[in-house]
Predict the structure of Tryptophan--tRNA ligase.
Amino acid sequence: MKKIFSGIQPSGTLTIGNYLGAMKHFVDLQHDYECMFCIVDQHAITVPQDPDELRDHKRKLAALYMAVGLDVNKSTIFIQSEVPAHAQLAWMMQCVSYIGELERMTQFKDKSEGKNGVSAGLLTYPPLMAADILLYGTDIVPVGDDQRQHLELTRTLADRFNRQYADIFTLPETKILGRRIMSLQNPEKKMSKSDANTKGFISMLDDEKTITKKIKSAVTDSDQDVRFDVENKPAISNLLTIYSLLSTQEVSSIEKEYEGKGYGAFKSDLAELTVSVLTPIQKRFYELYESDEVDNVLDAGSDTANKQARTLLQKAEEAMGLHRT
Ligand code: TYM
């Protein structure tokens, strides 16, 4: 069975962008692949995090992975920092990375622009991501479109290592899961859990009132046509994408349904649809969040991941000469 690896940062409560762009697809993939889903807390600390909040976000993310339907008998769910091999291999991957190629990453440029005291970890974020993936002999990495560049670099680093030292790493394929979900307040910007403007995103744990308010105050385009046209109507196209993914209805049939009805009716139905999808997930989430089940799953996950990671870590250390003969 082919191996899948993907990760999500516990840097805030997940948004529907994370859900529609990644998590929802993980649930389908687990039936046909051997899956590892990681809570990448070491990536999260590349920007400052409150320690208590970080702990809570990790627990929430684990409970959400389960609440959306990941079956722990099929998928391994674990926390990155509980598997030291990730940081160990990350150091080796840093040593085959060039500063120039790390500086060219758009995420690094976006997150460091105009800031003082940018952490070195933000620059070396991609080699850690490469380590996550390469440690498990991953065949396929399912991610949202915003991660494409990091995945290309992962392949470059794996190939470079294989040529310079020993041919041990599988070059993973990237599986882009769909269109990027944009901020409700600015359709030029991706919806992000770390956005300071909370009106820009819908959190997976937002209640009905908040969801309705955020969708109703989402920016729209100048006319009243519910029509998909990313170039000229980016805001409404984004809402149509969200509607389509939540309802599994084609965009063209949604456009037909709302012909001549204007934005008001469309937004109000979208709010209702969002609430109807999130409510059962939230119900399951709160049961899990308060139970011991989450800890048991994470303990088992870290055992499995630690066992699996050992083989490739050892091979990489041998290849680079990091062990005594
Ligand atoms: P992160 O935590 O930003 O996002 C997790 C997943 O959600 C997708 N995503 C989106 N998809 C559509 N629209 C959006 N607005 C949106 N926002 C986020 C992301 O593409 C991603 O699939 N670097 C990664 C975490 C990571 C990782 C890995 C992923 C670390 N190691 C190894 C895969 C394999 C990240 O920051 O994801």
